[in-house]
């Protein structure tokens, strides 16, 4: 970077400011001369330009006074002017507000670092930019329009992408400014000379802020310039010169042009496509004769005469519905094994995503703790914040979206919230803010809670009933593989040299990449054929499998008792899983202080065993009932947790790795079991089960407290107690007949097999495979 970037700052800032002014002028020309009508948003655009110019002028003035020069070259009498010009538009920067303009800072006043302030607001800017960019795209891409017009329309709205790009570039210079001055605290005086000492970086940061604001003004003008482009380049947007002349001629009233205008032309084009009646003389590149063009124009005018302008306006809602393609999603409950492969593969990509990103974020979190000097309790606090996000989001946001709009909307919502949390996590590390870490982890956990509400239940429901546990274990196994690969990649490549704040800043691009990938995946999911599961069909399948559902245990309907015990067991299982995850490295160091392998190596081995165990569980489920598998899993967890207490050295570490093995299939099997027989309440059950993942938040504190007072090995008594309590659920499933009937899968049960009047008929018609109703598929 040049030592004196003032020339670049002035040239870029003035150029973009002039360009924004030009676009606003073109907007007013298009609306006043061609459209003959102003609307309220045009006046807001003018106000935005005025504020934008004042903001830009403040940078011009500060640069003229020396902003951008090396600190030693800035005259002392100009420093106050630079500070005042720079902070004029930073609202609530100081307390009290007026102290920012005073020659000296009063002892009672305090001011936030401007670099910190800008960097903290960056994620919000990116989130809003991306939201504005993506929200109109679904409607635009599904409009009944000629391909050329549709592409032009999408490009027009896609100009918002440049604002996002500028925002990212701006953050680069903000990070450099932060690194240059080592501003790792949350508060610093504006009169301390910090701004002057980073004059070069500050000037470039402010320049990109001006570019961002001006780009926003430009993008707000582009969509309303269609009449101007229609006059200058009519063939490019599919409007003939004859049609344009009639549209803008004196015989057409201005109010009709503004009232009908573009939407009327769109509706008639869509009607022409549907009816296939006559040539379309209004398309660009048409080779029709002039007479054909006239006949097409007469047909258009005839339709206007028959329907009337008022008719078009009064049926605007109906026109919009015709204008946008409305596709009904498939029913996942009607899919057999072969038909369900494609949608399951799509959702398994989501499993891979959160497994991979979870590993990256978790590993970088360990580096953050080392760099920031967090103690064990603070580290557990960040861990608890992540799992706390699960406690509320599934039963509030997740259930609401899933019940109201279905699986596709819930997956997109979860990915979007997760991306927002990742973007907030990004500057949190740069600013070294522990509270910001807490907030970002809560949001990340909340996003994953919504995602798991949809993804886990989707895999369990998409396809035949008897294979739900198998499908979910395979998908979760792929997620576990990603959790193994990503820590290795981050430890050996991405975050290998992250030992200080400066290196930590460079690692933040991983967070931005994760966020953008999440959003791209969410946009992709919108256009993919994601099937749905209607509540009525879920209830129909449940009634065929469990009868009328009137069975009760201790006076409580069996489906609700099963769900309550299942949610409690899942809460305890995740708590035990996270107790092991947060303590296993310490356990290895205590048991094998002189091992050739590091504790990270043993954790990687544990994660690998965990991933393999999920595929082994899927294989075992082909032969054994799910409730048997769950009982075996809990028995293994209790036994090997107890052995960790009683052994030492390599044997104790091996027992810990066996816990990983028996843990592996418990989650997926338990989740799918609890959905059996829930009928129209299946989605509510899925949200409660996803909320139970929040069990990983609090019990690791108890284990750490016991470890501090009695040693790591003894602290595994907490693990034994957790798993022993959680084992009540599989005991209930295997001992209560009504629970057995509810959760044992019925062979070949999916919506297209409704000819099966009862499980008894299914047994008679499927020969050997009927044994899965009363035992395994091959074992009865």
From TrEMBL:
GO terms for molecular function: transmembrane transporter activity. The keyword Transmembrane applies. It is found in: Cell inner membrane. It is a multi-pass membrane protein. Residues 271-296, 756-780 are annotated as: Disordered. Residues 763-772 have a biased composition (Basic and acidic residues). It holds the Pfam family MFS_1. PANTHER family: L-FUCOSE-PROTON SYMPORTER, MONOSACCHARIDE TRANSPORTER, PUTATIVE (AFU_ORTHOLOGUE AFUA_4G06630)-RELATED. The chain crosses the membrane at residues 6-29, 41-62, 115-139, 151-173, 340-360, 380-402, 409-426, 553-574, 602-624, 631-651, 657-678, 685-706, 712-733. Keywords: Cell membrane, Membrane, Transmembrane, Transmembrane helix. This is Rhodopsin domain-containing protein. The keyword Cell membrane applies. Residues 85-231 form the Rhodopsin domain. It comes from Aspergillus thermomutatus. GO terms for cellular component: plasma membrane.
């Amino acid at each position: 970077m040049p030592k004196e970037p003032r020339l670049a700052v002035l040239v870029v800032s003035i150029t973009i400011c002039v360009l924004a002014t030009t676009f606003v002028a073109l907007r007013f020309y298009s609306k006043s001369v061609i459209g003959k009508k102003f609307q309220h948003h045009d006046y807001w655009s003018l106000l935005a330009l005025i504020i934008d110019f004042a903001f830009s002028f403040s940078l011009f003035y500060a640069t003229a006074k020396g902003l951008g020069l090396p600190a030693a070259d800035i005259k002392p009498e100009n420093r106050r002017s630079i500070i005042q010009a720079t902070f004029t538009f930073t609202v609530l920067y100081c307390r009290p507000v007026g102290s920012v303009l005073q020659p000296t800072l009063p002892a009672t006043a305090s001011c936030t670092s401007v670099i910190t302030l800008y960097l903290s607001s960056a994620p919000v800017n990116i989130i809003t930019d991306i939201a504005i960019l993506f929200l109109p795209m679904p409607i635009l891409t599904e409009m009944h329009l000629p391909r050329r017009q549709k592409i032009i329309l999408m490009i027009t709205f896609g100009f918002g992408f440049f604002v996002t790009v500028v925002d990212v570039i701006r953050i680069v210079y903000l990070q450099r400014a932060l690194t240059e001055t080592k501003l790792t605290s949350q508060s610093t005086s504006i009169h301390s000379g910090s701004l002057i000492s980073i004059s070069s970086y500050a000037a470039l940061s402010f320049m990109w802020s001006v570019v961002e604001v001006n780009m926003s003004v430009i993008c707000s003008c582009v969509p309303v310039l269609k009449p101007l482009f229609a006059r200058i380049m009519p063939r490019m947007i599919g409007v003939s010169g004859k049609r344009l002349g009639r549209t803008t001629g004196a015989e057409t009233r201005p109010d009709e042009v503004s009232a009908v205008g573009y939407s009327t032309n769109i509706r008639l084009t869509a009607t022409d496509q549907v009816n296939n009646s006559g040539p379309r003389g209004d398309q660009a590149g048409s080779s029709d004769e002039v007479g054909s063009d006239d006949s097409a124009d007469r047909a258009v005018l005839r339709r206007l005469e028959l329907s009337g302008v008022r008719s078009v306006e009064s049926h605007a809602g109906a026109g919009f519905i015709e204008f946008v393609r409305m596709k009904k999603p498939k029913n996942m409950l009607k899919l057999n094994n072969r038909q369900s492969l494609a949608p399951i593969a799509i959702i398994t990509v989501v499993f891979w995503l959160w497994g991979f990103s979870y590993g990256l974020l978790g590993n970088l979190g360990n580096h953050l703790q080392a760099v920031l000097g967090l103690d064990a309790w603070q580290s557990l606090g960040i861990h608890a914040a992540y799992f706390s996000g699960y406690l509320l989001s599934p039963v509030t946001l997740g259930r609401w979206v899933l019940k109201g709009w279905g699986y596709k909307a819930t997956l997109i919502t979860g990915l979007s919230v997760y991306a927002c949390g990742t973007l907030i996590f990004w500057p949190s590390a740069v600013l070294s803010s522990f509270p910001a870490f807490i907030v970002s982890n809560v949001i990340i956990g909340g996003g994953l809670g919504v995602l798991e509400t949809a993804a886990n239940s989707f895999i369990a429901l998409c396809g035949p009933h008897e294979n739900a546990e198998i499908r979910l274990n395979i998908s979760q196994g792929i997620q576990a593989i990603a959790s193994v690969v990503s820590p290795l990649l981050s430890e050996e490549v991405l975050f290998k040299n992250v030992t200080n704040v400066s290196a930590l800043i460079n690692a933040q691009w991983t967070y931005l990449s994760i966020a953008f990938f999440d959003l791209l995946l969410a946009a992709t999911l919108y256009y993919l054929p994601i099937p749905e599961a209607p509540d009525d069909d879920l209830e129909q399948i449940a009634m065929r499998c469990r009868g009328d559902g009137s069975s009760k245990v201790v006076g409580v309907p069996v489906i609700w008792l099963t769900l309550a015990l299942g949610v409690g067991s899942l809460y305890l299982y995740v708590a035990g899983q996270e107790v092991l995850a947060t303590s296993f490295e310490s356990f290895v160091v205590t048991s094998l202080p002189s091992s050739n392998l590091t504790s990270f190596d043993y954790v990687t081995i544990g994660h690998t065993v965990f991933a393999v165990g999920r595929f082994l569980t899927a294989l075992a489920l082909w032969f054994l009932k799910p409730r048997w598998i769950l009982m075996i899993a809990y028995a293994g967890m209790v036994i090997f947790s107890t052995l960790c207490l009683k052994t030492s050295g390599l044997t104790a570490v091996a027992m810990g790795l066996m816990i990983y093995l028996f843990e592996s299939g418990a989650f997926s099997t338990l989740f799918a079991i609890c959905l059996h027989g829930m009928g129209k309440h299946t989605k509510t059950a899925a949200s409660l089960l996803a909320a139970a993942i929040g069990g990983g938040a609090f019990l690791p504190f108890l284990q750490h407290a016991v470890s501090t007072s009695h040693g790591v090995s003894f602290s595994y008594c907490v693990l034994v107690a957790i798993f022993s309590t959680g084992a009540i659920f599989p005991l209930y499933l295997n001992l209560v007949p009504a629970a057995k009937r509810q959760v044992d899968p019925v062979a070949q049960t999916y919506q297209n097999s409704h000819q099966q009047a009862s499980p008894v008929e299914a047994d008679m018609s499927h020969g050997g495979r009927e044994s899965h109703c009363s035992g395994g598929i091959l074992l009865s």
